[in-house]
Write a structure and sequence with these properties.
alpha/beta, five-stranded mixed β-sheet, three-stranded antiparallel β-sheet, 9 helices
Length: 307
């Protein structure tokens, strides 16, 4: 645990479990020039102005976040320096820190180097930077293990200075975008009152509650949240079934969002999930199959829900 406060003379102090230390209030050894060089090395072009160097963020994280399993949030992530720094720090000290980076899809200038390089917005820069930084970190660890048993990757081919030889370091990430619901009843309602013709049109539209452009993956993640799971919980896309589970492996849930038949239902029931969630449209109008499914899952003491 870390507590911070200012002393009477204005000096910032941090109290950690092992004692008190005094970080600098003015940091001069890290520069945006260093950050630019790192980014150019990864993306080959100067696609972002004045990026912070990963070494600065890693330095701040190292003493602000004393737990190696901490979650670091960057609400103005820019080019993705925080993600890069967290992955690098994990590789160096064996930590399992995670990060959340939030960035508006701010468009790049039409005449900018970023646009010339194919980046339409800042978020796209960050995504590509995280991919390449992760690959570089993994590669440096593998090279170091092959070439230097001391696990010091400084001189390994293509290595990043200071990266420990841990080829198993997790550099994966997921990207989510805010959007309207993929289910019509959860989308923003029309403003104002509706006339009779509009009401009839709306009733016809809701014969299928799924938005026409909704894909299985997007629906699964939305339902994952609505069912109380976290975005970091387990999600597996198998044939005709999406499987969810929490970190404790106590909430195994099956989502049937596309096509349902008796064979699929039997297969799901054999897995003994806690809950089965099915879209009505997946039954393709077969009311008998739907009714039998509800009875079969009830007999198996499995929660069954349709939408």
């Amino acid at each position: 645990m870390v507590n911070s406060s200012f002393k009477s003379n204005g000096v910032l102090q941090y109290e950690k479990e092992k004692g008190t230390f005094h970080p600098k209030t003015i940091i001069t050894e890290f520069t945006t020039k260093q950050g630019s060089n790192v980014l150019i090395d990864l993306l080959e072009d100067p696609v972002f102005d004045f990026p912070k160097p990963p070494s600065l963020v890693a330095y701040l994280v190292s003493f602000v976040c004393s737990n190696k399993n901490d979650l670091i949030l960057d609400f103005f992530s820019g080019s993705g320096t925080t993600a890069h720094a967290v992955m690098q720090l994990n590789a160096e000290d064996g930590g399992n820190r995670r990060y959340i980076c939030v960035q508006l899809a701010e468009e790049t200038d039409e005449n900018s180097e970023a646009r010339k390089a194919g980046f339409a917005n800042i978020a796209e820069i960050a995504k590509e930077r995280i991919r390449r930084a992760g690959a570089q970190i993994r590669r440096s660890g593998i090279d170091a293990r092959q070439n230097m048993p001391s696990e010091n990757a400084d001189t390994a081919a293509g290595a990043v200075s200071g990266i420990n030889a841990r080829p198993t370091v997790d550099t994966g990430f997921k990207v989510f975008k805010l959007t309207e619901s993929h289910f019509k009843q959860w989308r923003r309602p029309l403003s104002g009152s509706l006339n009779e013709q509009q009401q009839l049109a709306l009733l016809e539209e809701f014969q299928n509650i799924v938005h026409e452009n909704a894909g299985v993956e997007n629906m699964a993640y939305e339902l994952m949240l609505r069912l109380g799971f976290e975005l970091t919980d387990s999600i597996e896309f198998a044939d005709n079934v999406v499987w969810l589970n929490n970190a404790a492996q106590t909430r195994k849930t099956a989502l049937l969002l596309d096509t349902v038949n008796q064979a699929v239902l039997d297969e799901v029931r054999a897995q003994s999930p806690k809950k089965v969630f099915v879209l009505d449209k997946a039954f393709a109008g077969d009311d008998a199959l739907k009714t039998n499914a509800a009875l079969q899952f009830k007999d198996a003491d499995i929660d069954f829900e349709t939408l």
